[in-house]
Every structure is written in structure tokens, then in C-alpha cells.
Design a protein that fits this description.
- The strands form six sheets. The protein has a 13-stranded parallel beta sheet. It has a two-stranded antiparallel ribbon with strand order 1-2. It has a two-stranded antiparallel sheet with strand order 15-18.
- About 35% of the residues are buried.
- It has about 650 residues and is α/β, with parallel strands linked by helices.
């Protein structure tokens, strides 16, 4: 079924008359695309060039040829499929980062636009028009064609303002989509006439027009229901202090505000700090991409201290990409530790975190029990800093649920510290270690000169394997499996490569039921990881009544016959690899195995070769009343009992 269709429509043409969906372009189609046809932030970086000679002798000439890298070709194919994919009828979401990060890496931010993508955007637009009860719309990190937003606005208008049929649209996100001035102006006009929107995200779009920025500020101020606004990495005019002051004033009644741009300067930053110290309702605040110097650090720290003592303290703070040495606004003294004691979420990503700063943040973790989420991604955090920080999570009083230390300088040397923390911590629910290139699955073996020749030793376990095998999935014995950490989902590479089972264990630990987690891990261990667990000596203390349950575990495999739904990537039909030969070997080697086939006081015979003589029983005595079987006669039937 094609995207957005109702169940009664066909694959070729839906009921709304949109026609057939366009055919996804093949991998080789993009070989002939010209560089000038691509528009967007990452268009140039996805190109490669080659130089070669043509002709012989005097006719020889050098020719240069530009072409797309192979990752970009796959990227456009994935985007086309994403635009054709079936969407929820209430929530539409297409995020280019899901494609560009996997194919190109984290440094790429946006999928460029090419005219060949036009039919797919047309089909996507036609599908959105058929959704009658649209509540949220997200189209992010994709360079949009110029026509799209202008045609989407009427759809948004018809899905809001308490429409009797269409319902209410409450969330709109157009982050990093290359919106033009007229498109931003039409969004501001839409917001002025809207009455139902609660969340608006326009981050990474330059609102260069002062008139458009002022219009957006007026719409936000007068809007009756909007509570969340994200204009982070938006220029907001020419960075004028007067315009920024008006914009901030219009946002004082919001619950969540994200703002910031490199054009703000020190004067703009001081204005933001002054705004935070006033009596406003904002509970979660993000300041992004604004360089914070020493003078501004002090001003911001004082404003946060005043805000913490107010009747509406911050519960969420984000200081991202501010070019500062952490902890920056958080001081290591007593006053500094209590500065943010109301925070439940703190993000300080893409800055710099030296060892001294890590020590201060460790004190913050111990002093602030309300803090449950901490993001320190991209802060050049080293092994020494990681050890200082993770030491705070070994305490019994630790309350942190989510820790992000991805894209730092952490290596395999920090793995033992991480393992020690995970063994004693029972509050952490997620730990992100992705992007730390020094944490590997294996350590290459060393070359040694033995018996007159160089020989390479076997690869050792790297930090990735060590963390999984020693903290989350220790298959040494059944007891170590049970005693492993079942609460924290650790993300390092995001896959099961090199027999780490990282992705599978992360999904298991994300489940709600701890007995189910242990069951999945035991099944995974005895069927794929450690076959020595089949030895029945491991089950000497297991009551004989539980043996059938043990056989059930051995007969299961995650991902087969419906077992492991939500853990395995895809479910498979029953596999013959779950052989009963292993069960037979275990049962036959166990001293009490014959007792499993015992029934009552005697044993069940295998084959009945001949009928045994049966003793006749006397006539059945009548118990009165009518019989259920009218043909039955006591004198003609006799009960037979075999011994």
C-alpha cells in the first residue's frame, strides 16, 4: 500500500486521485547528475572530482569530471523512499538526519535538493492533503523545494483552529530546511491566525528580515496556546539588540525557549542573561551557538543564581556550542553547587570539558539529586575526566538516569571504570558512548618474534566487548548472567558486529520486565554465546520439576517463532538450528534423566505388541435417573482395565 492510503485503496492509484507513486531512482541514476543542480548546505561536500587524459600525442588533453560520492547516491535513494513511506495519519515525520548521519557521518547536517526529487515531494504533499486529523508535522534536515511550504500552509490552516472535522494541529517543525524570506513570512502570518499550535520549531533557518522577525515575535506574544519555541541557530535579523529585546519579551510566557546565534555578540548575550533574571515563566531554556567570554560567564552565572531563588526556577538548561571551558557558569564552591539544584536536565554539549571541570561536575551530580539527564557530548572529555565523572555514579545516592558522553576522546583504557560503575549503579537507564573512536570492539594482536619468524598474536577484547561482556552480559555462568546490569542501555556503535551483541542487549535492557530481560539473556547465552552452559552440572541444584522449563529455554532462539518481539530486528520462521539433539545430549547425560519420563507409580511402555488379558468387571450398578447414552446397556458393556 502506498503512503497515506486508506485500507480500501489500491497500490496503483489511491482514492484521492493522486496517481501512481514515482519510481525510486536507481543507484546509477545519480552518476550523471551535475554539481550545479544540487542546492543545500552539504551539496558541495558530497561531490568528488577525477582528472584523466583523453587523446594521443598533440590531441591529448586533460579532462576533469565531477561526480557524487557513493554515500550521497544511497542517501538520495533513501530520501526518496522516505518521502514515499507510509505515514501515521495524525503524525507526519520525515527527518533527513536519519539518512545523512548513517550514510555521510555526523558532520553532515542536511540532505540537498535536486530537481529529480521534485516528483517525490509532489507525492508527499498530495499525501499530506489527504490526512484529515493531522496533529503534528515534522520535516527536518532536508533542503526543501521553493514551492512546498507555500502549498503546505493552507493544509496547516485547515487542520487547526478547532475545526469540527479536521481536528487540531498542535506541533509544527521545519528545522534546517533552508526556508526563504517569503516562506518564513507566510509561517508568521499563519501563526497570527492560529489558535491551537503548542510547539513551533524553526531552528537552523536564517530569519534575516527584521520585519519577518518582528512579525514572528508579535504572533508568539499574542498566541493563546503556544508553549514551546525553538529558533536556535537563527540569525533573527541582523543581530540588532533592539530587535532581540522585543523578541525575548514576546517569549516571557512560554514554557520552553531555545534561542541563539553567533551574530548575537556580547551585548546580545548580556541581554539574554538579564532576561533570564527577570520574573518569567520559562522552565526550560537553551542558549546555542553564542560564544560566551569570561565577562559574560559572570553575568550569566549571576542571572541563573537569581532565577534559581525565584518562584519559577529553571528545570532544564542547555548551553550548547558556546566555545567555553566547562563547568563555566557552574562554580565549584558551595554556592555554585546549589546554583542549579532544581535542574532535572542539563546539556553542556560541544564545548570543552577539562579534568578540573569534570571534577566540579562530579560534585554537581552528588549535590543535586533532582538531576536526571546530563549531556556532555562533544566536549573533548578524556579518560581522566571520564573517571572523575563516573566515580560520582558509583555512589548509592546517584540519581542520574541518562548520561551522554558521546563524541569525546574516551578510549579503551576507560572501559574498566565504566564496567565498575555499571556493576554497582542501578539508576542509570541509558549511557551514550558513540562517536568515541578510541573505544573499539577488538585490540589488534601484536607481532612477536618466535622460533625464527614474526607471528601475530590473536586480537584482544577492546573496550566495547569488555563493557558488554563484563557488565551487561556476562555469560561465564548462569549466576553471572543474572547478576549483570539489566537497567542500562549502552550505545557505542549501535550494532551487533564482531560478536558484541551490543544492539540486542541494549534493546533487552530497555524492556520493562526484569524477569523477561533475564530470560532473553539466558536464551541468547545458551543458544549462541556460551555453549558450555548446556552442561547439566550447572543445574545440579535445579529441582526436577523445573526441567521442562529449562528445555523450553534451550528450544528457543531470539527472533524465531515470535520469541523476542521488539528485540530482534525481524522475526523469522522456526529454525531447525534450534535442534533437540542438544537437549537429548543433556538429558541422556544427567543421572536423573529417566525420572522425567515417569508417570505415577509405573513407567509408560514404548510399544504395545499384543493385547493383554483384561479382567472383567462386574455389571455397572444403576445410580438412578436417565442415562446420557440411550444405547448403552449395562449387561452388554464391560469395563476393561489393563495392568
Amino acid at each position: 500500500m502506498s503512503a497515506y492510503e486508506s485500507d480500501s485503496s489500491s497500490d496503483d492509484e489511491d482514492l484521492q486521485g493522486r496517481g501512481k507513486p514515482p519510481t525510486v531512482h536507481s543507484y546509477g541514476h545519480w552518476n550523471s547528475r551535475k554539481a550545479v543542480d544540487f542546492t543545500g548546505k552539504n551539496a558541495g561536500t558530497m561531490l568528488r572530482s577525477s582528472t584523466y587524459s583523453v587523446g594521443i600525442g598533440e590531441n591529448r588533453r586533460v579532462v576533469s569530471h565531477n561526480y557524487l560520492c557513493w554515500q550521497a547516491k544511497s542517501l538520495f535513494e533513501k530520501l526518496e523512499k522516505g518521502l514515499l513511506a507510509k505515514q501515521d495519519r495524525k503524525h507526519v515525520s520525515v527527518d533527513g538526519r536519519d539518512y545523512v548521519t548513517k550514510m555521510m557521518g555526523s558532520k553532515y547536517e542536511q540532505v540537498p535538493f535536486h530537481p529529480d526529487l521534485q516528483p517525490f515531494f509532489d507525492y508527499f504533499l498530495a499525501g499530506v492533503k489527504t490526512l484529515g486529523s493531522l496533529e503534528s508535522f515534522e520535516l527536518a534536515n532536508v533542503q526543501l523545494p521553493n514551492f512546498l511550504v507555500g502549498k503546505l500552509i493552507p493544509v496547516f490552516e485547515s487542520r487547526s483552529n478547532h475545526h469540527e472535522f479536521y481536528g487540531n494541529m498542535t506541533a509544527l517543525s521545519l528545522s534546517n530546511t533552508g526556508l526563504l524570506a517569503d516562506e518564513l513570512a507566510s509561517i508568521a502570518t499563519f501563526l497570527q491566525n492560529n489558535e491551537t499550535l503548542e510547539s513551533l520549531v524553526l531552528s537552523h533557518n536564517n530569519i534575516e528580515s527584521n520585519e519577518t522577525a518582528a512579525s514572528l515575535a508579535r504572533a508568539v506574544k499574542k498566541h493563546p496556546t503556544i508553549r514551546h519555541l525553538d529558533v536556535g541557530d537563527c540569525k533573527l535579523g541582523g543581530g540588532e539588540v533592539g530587535l532581540l529585546s522585543k523578541f525575548l519579551f514576546s517569549c516571557k510566557d512560554l514554557d520552553d525557549l531555545s534561542i541563539g546565534h553567533a551574530s548575537f555578540g556580547s551585548e546580545g548575550l548580556k541581554l539574554v542573561a538579564k532576561f533570564l533574571g527577570k520574573k518569567i515563566n520559562i522552565a526550560q531554556f537553551a542558549l546555542v551557538s553564542v560564544p560566551i567570554d569570561k565577562e559574560c560567564k559572570k553575568v550569566l552565572s549571576k542571572s541563573l543564581a537569581v532565577r534559581n531563588k525565584s518562584s519559577h526556577p529553571l528545570i532544564g538548561l542547555c548551553l550548547r556550542s558556546n566555545e567555553m571551558d566547562l563547568p563555566a557558569v557552574i562554580r565549584g564552591n558551595k554556592n555554585g553547587l546549589t546554583l542549579l539544584d532544581n535542574l532535572s536536565s542539563l546539556e553542556l554539549s560541544n564545548n570543552r570539558l577539562p579534568v578540573a571541570g569534570a571534577k566540579v561536575l562530579a560534585k554537581v551530580l552528588r549535590a543535586n539529586p533532582a538531576l536526571t539527564t546530563l549531556n556532555l557530548s562533544g566536549n573533548r572529555l578524556t579518560n581522566k575526566g571520564a573517571r572523575e565523572l563516573l566515580a560520582a555514579l558509583k555512589d548509592d545516592s546517584a540519581t542520574l538516569n541518562h548520561l551522554d558522553i558521546s563524541n569525546n576522546w574516551i578510549t579503551n583504557s576507560a572501559a574498566p571504570t565504566i564496567v565498575e560503575m555499571l556493576k554497582v549503579n542501578n539508576t542509570l537507564r541509558s549511557l551514550d558512548l558513540s562517536g568515541n573512536s578510541g573505544i573499539t570492539a577488538t585490540i589488534p594482536g601484536r607481532y612477536e618474534y618466535v622460533s625464527g619468524r614474526w607471528q601475530r598474536s590473536e586480537n584482544g577484547d577492546g573496550g566495547r566487548r569488555t563493557i558488554i561482556r563484563e557488565a551487561l552480559f556476562d555469560t561465564t555462568s548462569l549466576d553471572t548472567i543474572v547478576q549483570s546490569n539489566h537497567t542500562c542501555s549502552v550505545h557505542i556503535s549501535g550494532n551487533d558486529n564482531k560478536e558484541t551483541y551490543e544492539e540486542t542487549i541494549a534493546k533487552i535492557n530497555a524492556l520493562d520486565s526484569e524477569p523477561l530481560k533475564i530470560r532473553y539473556k539466558v536464551v541468547l547465552a545458551i543458544t549462541e554465546v556460551n555453549q558450555d552452559l548446556y552442561d547439566f552440572d550447572k543445574f545440579d541444584n535445579l529441582p526436577i520439576e523445573l526441567m521442562p522449563n529449562l528445555f523450553e529455554l534451550i528450544g528457543q532462539r531470539i527472533g524465531y517463532a515470535g520469541f523476542g518481539q521488539g528485540v530482534a530486528k525481524k522475526m523469522r520462521k522456526y529454525s531447525k538450528k534450534t535442534s533437540l539433539n542438544r537437549v537429548y545430549q543433556i538429558v541422556s547425560s544427567h543421572q536423573d534423566a529417566p525420572l522425567l519420563f515417569t508417570r505415577g507409580s509405573g513407567a509408560v511402555s514404548k510399544v504395545r505388541k499384543s493385547k493383554k488379558k483384561c479382567k472383567s468387571k462386574g455389571k455397572r450398578k444403576s445410580r438412578g435417573g436417565e442415562s446420557d447414552d440411550e444405547d448403552w446397556k449395562p449387561s452388554d458393556r464391560k469395563m476393561k482395565v489393563c495392568r
